[in-house]
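User: Round two. Same drill as before: sequence, then structure, for each protein.

Assistant: Same drill it is. First protein:
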Amino acid sequence: MNNFWLSLLGMSFITFFCRFFFFSKTVPFELSPKVKRVLSYTAPSVMTAMWVPIVFLGHQESSGDFITSPFLIAGIATIVFSLLMKNTLAVVVFGMSIFGLLKIFL
């Protein structure tokens, strides 16, 4: 087994057990309301750390301008759609579809 698969299994193991303790009803472990409130900011923070470099630096691989970048246009369209609709799966599919169409036609 090479290092990639060993690393993948190790990260999967760590992620599973970190989540297991928080969501399992068999483990008597409860977070305080203050800790729960602080942890509620982690998902938006991680997502922002992932999409900002893609949207603002993704245009560098294509020959177009930043304003006509499929990354930027699809990102803005996805934000607008997410404000109108609260279904996360529909927003993700919509954003990916817009990006795919823009990559084909731009």
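Second protein:
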Amino acid sequence: MKKLLFLALLPLMTFAQSESVNIFLKDKHTRYANVGVYIKDLRSGEEIDSYRKANAITPASVMKVLTTATALEIMGEDSCLQTVLEYTGKIDNGTLHGSLYIHGYGDPTLGGAKQGQTFFQQWIKAVRDAGIQTIEGNIIADLSYFDGDALNPAWLWEDAGNYYAPGIYALAYMDNTMNVILRSNEQGSVAKVLYTVPEVPGIEFENHIRCTQIQTDGAYIHGMPYNFKRYLVGAIPSNHGQFGVRGDLPNPGLLLAQHFTNRLRQAGIRVNGKATYLSERDLLPRTRLYTHRSMPLADIVNLTNQHSVNLYAEMLYRLLGARLNTPCSLNNAEKMVRNYWRNRGVNLAGATIKDGCGLAPQNAVSPESLVDILTYMYASSNREAFYESLPVSGRSGTLRSLLVGTELEGRVHAKSGTIAGTKNYAGYIELPDGGRWVFAVMVSSAIGKSTEIKSVIERYLLDVYRRNR
């Protein structure tokens, strides 16, 4: 009888929740959602609040916590990513009897919004310093350091080709993004494609974008890696004049080689060949001419987490795979992440890891695993770089609108994650006495707009803070 009574009470004991968690369970937007929370005190290790903390939940961009933390730990915050100029053949009397290669090793920032185009001056100087005035061969973008999965197979078709889901190559350029400039006309008409920024030689569009009563950007660009045909669908506001829609570059490495070729010619260095690319390394012997180094990894991680840059996170994820084998692969990246954290006591056995940025809907991580990783990082030698990379509530990055005007404004350092029906936060809460909590709040399959789900999470965090500070 006592045994039966114990078994009858077990479900009640297992699913007991705090008064704060009831905020999720009573709100119409999250009542039927998959909710998991875990909050603990960093100093004492005491649990502040939890609910289904071991359940694996879709992380969305909170996946970047896992990726950036692993990258900092394995690669080091001061490390720089390389892009190498190499050549085949010999230099004789000012002429390179061979080709010049741009060998990519996974720098996501090359030519991007933060770095710009100034690196071309350094590259041209290196060519001149080598005594090269004429290049008989080609300018070749070497993409062989990454494998052929430029498009993560776990991503959705509706995302592929858009700026936030670009192809991933060993050579990134200009954030792998182009802006398609349209002319918005009268309601019901098809928008006209005017030009792209940057200009992409050979690009073709099949355009079905309608001008409608929509007030925001409802247009999508679809296309596959290396394919210069892009499909434009969806809607933009009517009678809006010029309107930009961002998509990914079909082959950023090739565009880099084309731009470099033009820069060389403008600088008076003759190039007899053409700009081209290769995805599998050839066997010709090469000589290293110049090594370009990126900004420090800590800065790349900061940009990744502050602005939730999928390209940067995904390239860092591939680079983790290079620690096992090259060319870098998605499978090796997953193995590297799992092995690293398993060896440090973090249980990822129940996690599903399909990418490094969080776009894959199959991804699943528990609040407990995230809190364990965040706890580890707070004791790491890379703590400052990681902590400073996280947006601050009401102040910066993707948390700029979170908890504004409350006692938690400026006190939450966390990564957010948002996709349809999913809203997550994972990071740290600073307390007035100098202490800190580490937390993960995850909500998926919720009903309503992202702002409505965010409002429920804000009420929850404030309630926990007020009850336990």
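The chain has three domains: 2-77+298-468, 82-147+252-293, 174-248.

User: Perfect.
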